[in-house]
Design a protein that fits this description.
Number of strands: 57
Organism: Anser cygnoides
Protein name: Intraflagellar transport protein 80 homolog
Distance between the termini: 66 Å
Shape: elongated
Subunit structure: Component of the IFT complex B, at least composed of IFT20, IFT22, IFT25, IFT27, IFT46, IFT52, TRAF3IP1/IFT54, IFT57, IFT74, IFT80, IFT81, and IFT88. Interacts with IFT88. Interacts with IFT57 and IFT70B.
Radius of gyration: 33 Å
Strand order of the largest sheet: 1-30-29-28
Low-confidence stretches: 69-73
Keywords: Cell projection, Cilium, Cytoplasm, Cytoskeleton, Repeat, WD repeat
GO biological process, one term: cilium assembly
């Protein structure tokens, strides 16, 4: 990826340009010390003067009122705030009419910024004050007052906090009084510019120490650049938070959100004092010290999938390279390309007006449909369909271009969603709520309605990243997520009424990804790269989980690596310096998943015998128990030396009825409640009581016996024997109450138990006879 820059031969402004701002994706306003406000039309390449400011007004900062005001989306911005050196800020309409001028600060007003809703304005000045104003320019509050000039200000993602500079310090101050203020030393020199992105919630800062830095919203340093030759005079996030641009003397740099640099341009601009990204994030403009306005387009973005490599070579042209046969295709578009995604055999491209869907089998005939809203900010793909996210909502389309659904939830803000906070699979869509970060909304992809009982999934702490598995049945769909403490959890998305079981499977996890063809999860936790070959093991046999892992030292990936892809058995990881590392894992677990999903148990056993790997046997054991195939489970457990479990499986086989066997398989997986419910539903009351006795759930065993008026003496007898073995006396009042005047006769109890077992055998035989007769009739 790089920047394609353009400068006019002669500057349109006679003095330095102090600020620039986009109204639409093709129209820009610039302000200069020559008191002119100019309008640049990029479609016609025309530049016109909008207005000449009074001679004593030197503009410093410009910010257009956000396009979505009060939930209504406007096609373009209508007015902007302009701060100036005379201590005023001016509210100016698009035509250049000054609607209002407000005396704001003593000395120059160094920066002015609208919040994301356009309901409040923050200004900072040479007098060291930070002030909050209403949309109409009425003073709401003076947020801070200090002895040094404040050079830059930015709103927090939720518009509840304000970030501003104070010498070498950065300060985050909430609007609410009596809430803790966060302050830290960020640079060794004066901080000149700062920016805070609402999508990734990361902070940028640039200073006179010639460095730019990336911080998280808690003030932790994520990246610090090498010192440049000159102070960094401007820095700005692109709208989607994937890129940022850095400006300095004769320098323009394009960087990834993690800090490393994609491209460095050395244009003849003097210092670049201000950078503004266009609405669609495809281009940026810079305000230059020598009177120029520099324009730069982001080109040469690349997408890779299997044997295809696609490059955006011009704004409206893509090149497709098939590395197997070296074939090259050119894809031409009517409008400029804004977003693209390549996965599952399809390329989805959104331009400013249309969406194109290409199949990798045929590049000549794309499917084209018009877009509803405008700028697409995110494209996510699954095997059967894809998701488009824009400012208006979430839209799920099939690869034939049919709109499948458009899920909604209360307080939905789609402009701040990214690939970490939305996840898509063939049947499910998961979205992390930004208003309450502990909540994940889960939708049925086909209907767009909330899944299960309609309640969202709620965690105990804030969630950072979510990912749905891609394969298997809808009823077994799992979601993995990383929380604020960097713990990795997994849970099922299908829940009806009962409390979901969220299980922790990893700690200090930086990044995660599911495999595209089988439910294998990989992640980087602390200093180890880990692959969970069968994460579902936690629901089947928790003790086995550690045996189903593959671990590798991750020190070669350096600090803060990110997993880019997990396709087939190849994992692509991007290091903090931007370099890509490709890792290959064993292909056998993927084959094992395929065999199990097709119920080819004999082939699965044969594969494990061929590979002779304990991890494979452990995965097969868990898969067999999950699918209730106890014969295979017995072989697999025997191969990893779990003799106690082999004996238990053998004892399950000897049980007389199918219901008992099912209940004990549930018990094997630790699902005590489900096992008991199954036995009670099928009328096996004694067996349900016996299960609780075996697990020493004495109170529950007695409760069932009393409720069903059977085997109270059995429970009391086992309880008495248990206490005698440990030399204890009965202290439980309920047991003392029922034991009064009761003589324990073990012969009687044994006879009753044998009778229950005989009854169960008869029932099993009768139901087998009925099944056989039905089969004969059919």
């Amino acid at each position: 990826m790089r920047l394609k820059t353009s400068l006019l031969k002669e500057p349109k402004h006679k003095e330095l340009v102090s600020c620039v701002g986009w109204t639409t994706a093709d129209e820009l306003y610039s302000c200069s010390d020559d008191h002119q406000i100019m309008k640049w039309n990029l479609l016609t390449s025309e530049t016109t003067r909008v207005v000449k400011l009074p001679d004593d007004t030197y503009p410093i900062d410009l910010h257009w009122l956000p396009r979505s005001v009060g939930g209504k989306k406007q096609s373009h911005a209508e007015s902007f705030v302009l701060t100036s050196s005379d201590g005023k800020f001016h509210l100016i309409s698009k035509s250049g009419r000054v609607e209002k001028s407000v005396e704001a600060h003593c000395g120059a007003v160094l920066a002015g910024r609208w919040n994301s809703e356009g309901t409040a304005l923050a200004t900072v000045g040479e007098d060291g004050q930070v002030k909050i104003w209403s949309k109409s320019g009425m003073l709401r509050s003076t947020l801070a007052q200090q002895g040094t000039p404040v050079y830059s200000v930015a709103w927090g993602p939720d518009s509840e906090k304000v970030l501003y500079t104070s010498g070498k310090q950065l300060i985050i101050k909430p609007l609410q009084p009596n809430v803790k203020v966060l302050q830290w030393k960020a640079h060794d020199g004066l901080i000149l510019k700062t920016d805070w992105n609402s999508v990734n919630e990361l902070i940028l800062s640039a200073g006179e120490d010639c460095k730019y830095k990336v911080w998280d919203s808690y003030g932790h340093l994520l990246y610090s650049s090498q010192p440049h030759e000159y102070p960094i005079t401007s820095i700005a996030w692109s709208g989607d938070g994937e890129l940022f641009a850095v400006g300095s003397f004769h320098t323009l740099r394009l960087c990834d959100k993690t800090g490393w640099s994609y491209a460095l341009e050395k244009p003849n601009t003097g210092s670049i004092f201000n950078i503004a990204w266009s609405v669609d994030g495809t281009q940026l403009a810079g305000a230059c010290g020598n009177g120029h306005v520099i324009f730069a387009h982001v080109v040469e973005q690349r997408w890779e999938w299997k044997n295809f490599e696609i490059t955006l070579i011009k704004r409206r042209t893509m090149q497709v390279h098939n590395v197997i046969n070296d074939a090259v295709d050119l894809l031409e578009f009517r409008d400029r390309v804004i977003k693209a995604s390549l996965n599952y055999g399809h390329l989805v491209v959104s331009t400013s007006l249309q969406c194109y869907v290409f199949s990798t089998k045929n590049w000549n005939t794309p499917l084209i449909f018009d877009l509803k809203e405008g700028t697409v900010t995110l494209i996510l793909q699954a095997e059967r369909h894809f998701l488009l996210v824009d400012g208006g909502g979430l839209y799920l389309y099939s690869y034939e271009g049919r709109l499948i659904s458009s899920p909604k939830f209360p307080g939905m803000r789609t402009d701040i969603l990214n690939a970490q906070t939305v996840s898509l699979s063939n049947d499910t869509l998961a979205v992390k709520d930004k208003a309450d970060e502990k909540v994940i909304y889960i939708f049925d992809a086909l209907s767009g309605k909330p899944l299960g009982d309609g309640k969202p999934l709620t965690h105990k702490s804030e969630i950072m990243e979510i990912a749905l598995d891609q394969k298997g049945l809808t009823s077994e769909r799992k979601i993995a997520f990383i929380d604020k403490n960097r713990d990795l959890y997994i849970t099922s998305v299908k829940r009806f009424g009962k409390e979901q079981k969220i299980v922790k499977i990893g700690t200090m996890v930086q990044t995660l990804a599911w495999n595209d063809t089988s439910n294998i999860l990989c992640g980087i936790q602390d200093t180890r790269f880990t692959v969970w070959y069968y994460p579902n093991t936690v629901y089947v046999d928790k003790d086995l989980l550690t045996k189903t892992l593959y671990e590798k030292d991750a020190s070669e990936f350096s600090k803060n690596p990110q997993i880019v892809h997990f396709v087939g058995n190849q994992i692509t990881i991007r290091r903090a310096d931007g370099s890509l590392i490709h890792l290959n894992i064993s292909p056998y677990p993927v084959i094992l998943h395929e065999y199990v999903s097709s119920s080819k148990w004999e082939d699965a056993v044969r594969l494990c015998r061929f590979v002779k790997d304990q991890t494979m046997w452990a995965c097969l054991a868990a898969m067999a128990v999950a699918n209730k195939d106890m014969a295979t489970a017995e072989i697999a457990y025997a191969s990893i030396g779990e003799i106690d479990k082999v004996q238990y499986i053998n004892s399950i086989k000897d049980l007389p009825s199918k219901e008992s066997r099912m209940a004990h398989i549930l018990l094997f997986s630790g699902n005590t409640q489900e096992a008991e419910t199954l036995l009670l539903q099928t009328g096996l009351i004694y067996q349900a009581i016996q299960v609780n006795i075996n697990l020493y759930n004495w109170d529950r065993a007695l409760e069932l016996a009393v409720k069903h008026k059977t085997h109270v003496d059995t429970v009391l007898a086992y309880r008495q024997k248990f206490l005698e073995d440990f030399g204890k006396k009965e202290t439980n009042k309920r047991f003392l109450q029922y034991a009064e005047g009761l003589e324990v006769d073990w012969n009687k109890i044994k006879a009753k138990i044998e009778m229950e077992i005989a009854k169960e055998r008869e029932r099993a035989a009768a139901s087998a006879t009925v099944r056989a007769s039905v089969t004969v009739q059919q």
